[in-house]
Every structure is written in C-alpha cells, then in structure tokens.
Amino acid sequence: MNKIEHIGIAVENLDSANQLFKKLLGKENYKIETVESEGVKTSFFQVGESKIELLEATNENSAITKYIKKRGEGVHHLAFNVEDIEKEIIRLKKEGFTIINENYKKGADNKLVCFLHPKSTNGVLVELCQERR
Ligand code: ZN
After folding, report:
1. How far is the CA of 21 from the centre of ligand 1 (A)?
2. Sign of CA pseudo-dihedral 50, 30, 73, 132
3. How far, in Å, is the centroid of ligand 1 from the Cα of 88?
4. How many angstroms separate the alpha carbon of residue 63 from the centre of ligand 1?
5. For the segment 5-44, what is each residue's pLDDT rounded down to a tens digit?
6. Among 61, 79, 83, 118, which residue's Cβ finds the most Cβ atoms within 10 Å?
7. Whole-angstrom Cα distance, residue 107 to residue 33?
C-alpha cells in the first residue's frame, strides 16, 4: 500500500454535500459517477494526492442506506492504493484479515476494488484499490 487513495464519506443528499464540500475544499468535484451494482452515486474531489469520495445511496438495499440508518452520515471507509490487488489480497488473508469480496470487482473512478471487514480492522472498513490498466 503506498498512499491513501481516498476517504469515503456517506451522505444523505449528494447535491447538498457537494455544495458543502465545494465550499470546504475551495474547488469543484471532478466527477460524478453512479455504480449501480453497489447502489451508490459518488462524487470525487481531488485533495493533493488523495481524494474525497462522497457516497449517496441509490436504493434501500445499498450499504450506504444501512450505514446511515445505523450510524448517521460520516466517514464510511478508508481506501488504500495498491499496485497489485491480487497479491495484496493473498498477503492480507495470510495475515488473518477478513476479506469481504475475495473476487475483487470494478469500482468507481476506474478502479478494481475489494473490502476488508471492519471486524478485522479495528472497526474501519478498508478498501483496496488498484488502477485499472
Ligand atoms: Zn471508496
């Protein structure tokens, strides 16, 4: 892992959260993308070498719907950049971490992604992401 790729933040309303983060960061988001398979609409802001990913649920079964019901809006996950997601999955499994989806999948922003269960990472949902080449 070589940097924090992004921080994911669960929001109830993407439009108003976008307005707020534009004011907070002093810049425009560079992308809005819906990932239908995950039930999320995302908005990305570049901050230095990392990003902020705002996540709004697009349906009732979305992980974001469940998260907000349980905990309210806020930091949802930390995403680390990896060079080789398959290698990292094997390494982390060996180290005893619980991988939610061992078959990594296509995520937002042109990435291959996989998640580690927060039970095995001090309560933090961790995402690994690799740039798709
Ligand atoms: Zn993410």
Report:
1. 17
2. negative
3. 17
4. 12
5. 999 999 999 999 999 999 999 999 999 999 988 899 999 9
6. 79
7. 10
How many Cβ atoms are within 10 Å of 21's Cβ, its own excluded? Answer: 20
CA distance 22 to 76: 19
C-alpha dihedral over 52, 35, 15, 79, to 10 degrees?
-10
Cα(113) to centroid of ligand 1, in Å? 8
Q: Whole-model pTM?
A: 0.93
> What is the Cα 89 distance to its own chain's centre?
17
What is the whole-number distance in angstroms between the Cα of residue 89 and the centre of ligand 1? 17
User: Six-digit token pair at 107?
Assistant: 């995520």
From ligand 1's centre to the CA of 95, what distance in Å?
22
State the number of CA atoms in the 13 A half-sphere of 32 facing the CB: 7
